[in-house]
Structures are given as structure tokens and as C-alpha cells.
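FYI - complex with adenosine-5'-diphosphate, inputs then prediction.
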Amino acid sequence: RVPLLRAIGLDKAYGSTPALAGADFSLRAGEVVAVMGPSGSGKSTLLHCLAGIVRPDAGTITYDGRELTALSDTARSALRRTDFGFVFQFGQLVPELTCVENVALPLRLNGEKRKSAEARAVEWLARLEVDDTAAKRPGEISGGQGQRVAVARALVTSPRVIFADEPTGALDSLNGERVMRLLTDASRDTGAAVVLVTHEARVAAYSDREIVVRDGSVRDAEWAV
Ligand code: ADP
Ligand code: ADP
């Protein structure tokens, strides 16, 4: 099968610091791929390039038949809002908004009315077992609850790809496992693929496949060119 998301020969440097050098990657629809490797090896940069947040210096990224690297910034932002969901390690919830407003936000940004957006947000909070946080602000809930709210927000638009960068990095192992189970269950139910950046084998164990980034390079054995 043709991959949903595929990158070939990505290079990216920050000034004179190389972050990616010849990285290849592929993701099939519904697949959960763990991106592993030591700190500073380029995992986050790879994720940011694949998600259309960072433009690589060289190489091509194809998403669903479109060349992401050739799209305008506006077109890439639009694609991110409709097709991608994001979960990061820290600071992703808007502190001034309640949890239900946070989860409804991506739907609101896509033009959905408040009432239906919040109704769907509540369903997702319940699915992630944190519906009791709906009326609270992020400062009033625990870190583990916050990550589950963040997963609800990533899934509420029914994205085809979820980008998760160390989603359990700030959690203890019990909460980390819980977030991973809920995230991978939800991705299986909805058919969303997941790009999971982690340096923990125990987190990567929830994936279908693991790849390892070393010094900015990754050979994706399954799709070697
Ligand atoms: P991790 O190892 O968990 O990916 P980092 O500490 O490398 O986290 O990076 C955290 C954030 O800071 C990322 O958004 C990354 O792009 C950015 N970053 C990393 N290194 C630098 C740097 N030398 N200068 C500026 N920003 C950086
Ligand atoms: P990882 O996620 O594996 O820790 P990163 O992709 O965050 O790796 O970083 C790869 C390299 O690029 C590191 O040397 C890091 O310091 C550097 N880097 C990442 N983001 C930035 C940035 N925004 N500005 C400058 N250097 C960066």
C-alpha cells in the first residue's frame, strides 16, 4: 500500500547545527510509528517537518498525494487544522479556557458553532475518562488529566494523523501508560495514524513499528528507496 505520509532525503540545519541529514520516513493510514533515538538526534525536527511546521532545507514530503513541501504556508496551516492533531509534552492547553473550551477550540477554529463543538468536546473528554474536568481550567487539574485533555483535543477533529512529541514525558509511569493506552485505543477506533516521538522503550511498545534516528538520519527499512 502507498504510504499516507512519506518523506525522502530530508535535510535541516539550524544555522551551522545540522538537525536532519538524509532522513527518510513513511507512515501508512492508521499505523502507529514510534520515532526513537537519543536526545538531540533530530526526532522533534523530523516531527515538525512531517507536520508542516518546519520547512526542510532539502528533501520532499508527500501527504495523501500532495507534496507538502510545495504548498504555501497558508495551505499547510489549513491542512494542519483539518487533517492533523497534536499532543506535546508541556504547555499545550490554554490556561484561560476551561477544559471543554480547550478541546472545542480546534473545532471552533474550523468554523463550528459553540454548542455543537462543545458537545463533541464533552464526548471526547468522556472517552478519555476526564469528563469531570470539563468546567475546570488547566491549572486546576493534574498533569495526567491535562495530558488526557490534550489527547481529547488532538482527536476531536477526527484527524488522519496525530503527531505526539514525548506525550508522556512529564508523567509518572502509571499515568504515562494510561495516556498511551487511551491514545492508541482512540487511534485504532478512529483510524488515525500516529507519529510518536519518544526515547522510552516502554512508550514505544504501544506502536506498531519503531524507527531510530541517529545524528539526523533515519533509514526507514520498510520503505527503503
Ligand atoms: P527534546 O530533546 O525533548 O526534543 P529539546 O530540548 O531538544 O527537546 O527541544 C525543545 C524545543 O526547543 C524544541 O522545540 C526545539 O526545536 C527547540 N530547540 C532545541 N534546541 C534548540 C537550540 N539549540 N536553540 C533553539 N531552540 C532549540
Ligand atoms: P531530539 O528531538 O531528538 O532531541 P531535536 O530535533 O530537538 O532532537 O534537535 C536536533 C538538533 O537540532 C539538536 O542539536 C538541537 O539542539 C538542534 N535544534 C533543534 N531545534 C532547534 C532550533 N529551533 N534552533 C536551533 N537549534 C535547534
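Residues 14, 17, 19, 37, 39-45 surround adenosine-5'-diphosphate (ligand 2) (CB under 6 Å). The mean pLDDT is 92.
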